[in-house]
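Job type: complex structure
Entries:
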Amino acid sequence: MMHSGGYARGSRIGVLEILPWLVAIAAFFLLPEYLSLGARILIFILFTLSLDLILGYAGIITLGHSVFLGLGAYTAGILSVKAGIHDPFLQLIAGAAIGAGFGAITGAVVLRTKDLTQLMLTLAIAAIMMEVGNKANWLTGGADGLPGVQVNPLFGVFEFDFIGKTGYVYCLVVLFIVWFFVRRMVYSPFGAMLTGIRENTARMHALGAPVYKRLLVVYTISAGIAGIAGVLLTQTTQSVGLNVLSFEIAGDVLVMLILGGVGRIYGAFVGPTVYLIAHDELAKQFPEYWSFGVGFLLLIVVFFARGGILGLIDKISARVRKS
Amino acid sequence: MQAFLSSLVSVLFHGVAYGMILYVISVGLSVTMGLMGFVNLAHGVFAMAGGLLLSTAMGRYGVPFPLALLLAFVVVAVASVVLERLLYSKLYSAGELPQVLFTMGLIFMSIAVARYLYGTQAAPLFLPDYLKGQIPLFGRDFPTFRVVLIIFSGLIVAALWFGVERTRWGAMVRAAVDNRDMAQSVGINTNRLFMLTFALGSGLAGLGGALGSDILPVQSTYPLENLVYFMIVVAVGGLGSLSGPFIAALLIGIADTATKYWLPELGAFLIYAATIAVLLWRPQGLFGVRS
């Protein structure tokens, strides 16, 4: 079931909502050799969450969400490699600001259109940024990207180590803060308005809701969060390359969200976790089968399980309760 | 000046060839999206299939070139109807998101299949001897295959226009694009009409993919790499229009060739920027029937 936002359900934090955090903390102690994968999963949860805000809650379909991830990632990379600014929090704030700023500018244009035009604009903007990243060699390193990004120790104490302990905890804390903010937002009247726009834009207009302004606000916030995810990606991998701007990553994040379940916050937690663990196990050994599997999975979700994994769990639990 | 004119001629020539191929591939997409409002990101899959069929038929089974082209058209058209009946038709009224996801799924699967069957190299194009070499025209030499390609695509375009503007089938297509409900209520079987049009459009994509394999190399990432261009042709040209995408495809073909020739450091930047500008100025495209 898609989340209806606003006052529809109790906004108190339920018992189940603590579960992901317990799992994340347990993983830190129990699976120390997988911490860099863990950090990657946390980053993609953040990125997917940002997509869920605009796609799941506000109903904006985009093929170019990678732009904001890429902007954040390159902001951190350029600050470190070209400007010598290695402070992690400064990079984080700058990435969020640039992501959100570009989100506001492009959103102001993209959100005035709808349907195919909107889809095409997001695609064209993503393509143009990819081209900029590729050709602006002096700034982005072109096809080679920017290797050797340096990040100062957190609070001057915790160094970003090879095993990824610091990176993992850092990503987890950032994700927690963003999650808290996002959750607060979707349960607010603002969140209710977004789902209203998704379900019936004409009626929201008739009710006097400032549709365009609300969409622009959520688009900007989402872009800012994606920018944060990009910064984290650069900081934990200590490099940035063109792939963060690619159409593949825009597709991947869409797949992760759909797989988990659209418009319900925790779909963005389940999808990336399942997708990236499966990717880690299968993709290197069987690249052909992997991409076939992803495609097949999309078909299965579209034709049989629109709600994704969480939707399936809902259905099963409803059936169990009935019997 | 002489040198500039000479390079201008070759940019125009290669640009037109490129644009023609883009049009033959993309025109089906314009109709699919105009007629059924179906966002078919997987259109490039049909073009890739055409290219692979041509290469396989000629390289492995020694089928002569014209017959292999015909084969690419027919096989892709038939296969697309199977897909349309089994899968596409289930999503006509499902909204954009399921359509986008489904066609993205098709792209991923086709990339995997192509890589499994053909590896990561581009499929070789085997030209018959009579299409190799150069043709002297107006005191210059032009590659024979490109000249034939332009003429052949021109004939296809002419046949298509005749079909849509002058035949009963064309009148039904135009009626359905303008107002599908009305067309249905005056007795046009829009589902069947769409199926046939879809097959024709996909077959043309297969043919275009096959013909254009020396311009757009046929490799496994083809549907993803060229997706933006096919979509731009349709979006800039306008949905449901025949002439709009034609002009858009020619403009893109020439502009892309020109930037590659004179301003390679800009890459495709100009084309994307122009696309965004056009879409902002006219969201329904240059010649769109509707947005």
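Summary: Strands of chain A lie at 146-147, 239-240. Chain A has a mean pLDDT of 88.
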